[in-house]
Amino acid sequence: MFETLRLLKVVSRPEFLPANCGSLVMGFAWGINPLSDLTPQLAILTALSFVIITVVSAIGAQLNTLNDHELDSNEPRKQYLVLATNALGKLKLKSVITVEFIVCLAFVVPFLILAKPVLLCLWAVAMFLTYAYNVPPLRFKSRSWLAMLTLLLVLSILPITFVYYSTTSELNLVFLLFLAGQTMTVYAVIIPTETRDYFSDKANDVNTLTVRIGLAKASLLAMLMLGLGGALMITAFTLALANKYPILSLFLLTMVAADFIVLRNYKRLYSLSKEYASSKESLTAEEIVQLSANNPKWITLVSQSIVFMSIILLVAKFLP
Fold first, then answer.
1. 86 contacts: CB under 8 Å, gap ≥ 6
2. Is the peptide bond before 137 cis (omega within 30 degrees of 0)?
3. CA torsion, ordered 270, 148, 308, 197, to nearest 10 deg
4. Which of 18, 160, 165, 190 could serve as a FRET partner for 52 with CA atoms 20 to 30 Å apart?
5. Domain range annotation of the chain
6. What is the radius of gyration, based on Cα positions, of the chain?
């Protein structure tokens, strides 16, 4: 029993849990109104939001592990997923995914219908895209631009909007500005992951956006999206804080510093990608893979600076 739970933990990719927490903080900080929204129903909906996006994330990770099993078998750094899947068994993993979906359908959906129907729509779209991204014959993961749009929705727009609408029914235009910037930033930090997998994806006909447009253009796109996304979010936070405590906007320097550090690494990745395009040297390819393997650190740096500013915004709302 405990061994099964341990294996389920591995294939559910618990390293993505901080991202779920980030979505919760961002959506809550932008949606909460301390003057009218502090009710028991709000507390329940907020807690339920975190559970739902975590379960959807787990299902997505499990489907990804299941359907990438053959590809991962050739990747030394993903052997722990292969071994966990083999030990757990594909049939048992499929059964777990089915049970998780049924539990959501049986217990979560009725509550959402009674509370806020829009949440049901967001959940349904997220579940469909989670399945379509990973599972043939749709397998959006292998469809370049469609893969990018799916990731933007599943990793940014849907979870943050889900939490946001758990706390409010009003649409804030400044929140939309923030969401646009955050969405661009999310894909900016995904691109180096695709860069790391570029050579194996290309060999196995996995047509990610990076495979489709090439390493150099993908690195350039990452820099542009990170810079523009950061600018949009900084503008949104500045506007949100302007009416109450504009001095708190100084904390935005943390986002500027984080983006600057990551952009320096992206610039190096871009230079290596251009060098590889002209030489095709294996040593350059290895250097690209090694550098882009640092992406989890870059994701943490950028995402936590956004979470930090969301906490500052949340605190400002409760200050007298």
1. none
2. yes
3. -50
4. 190
5. 1-168, 172-320
6. 20
> Do residues 85 and 96 make contact, with C-beta atoms less than 8 angstroms apart?
no
DSSP code string of 137-201: TT-GGGSTHHHHHHHHIIIIIHHHHHHHHHH-SSPPHHHHHHHHHHHHHHHHHHHHHHHHTHHHH
Residue 30 is inside which H or E element, if any? helix 17-31
Q: Which CATH architecture has domain 1-168?
A: Orthogonal Bundle (1.10)
Amino acid at 298: W
For the chain, 320 residues long, give each residue's pLDDT as a single digit of tens: 678 778 778 888 877 777 778 888 999 999 988 766 667 777 777 788 888 888 888 898 888 888 887 777 777 777 877 888 888 888 888 888 999 888 877 777 766 666 678 888 888 899 999 999 998 888 888 777 888 889 899 989 999 999 998 888 888 899 999 999 999 999 999 999 889 888 888 887 778 888 889 999 999 999 999 999 999 999 999 999 988 788 999 999 999 999 999 999 999 999 999 998 888 777 788 899 999 989 889 988 999 999 999 999 999 988 87
Task: Look up tokens 């739902």; give the residue.
Answer: 52
CB contact burial 80-106 (16+ within 10 A = b; e otherwise): ebbebbeebeeeebeebbeebbeebee
DSSP letters, 210-245, are: HHHH-HHHHHHHHHHHHHHHHHHHHHHHHHHHHTT-
Classify residue 106 by its DSSP letter.
Answer: I
State the CATH class of domain 172-320: mainly alpha
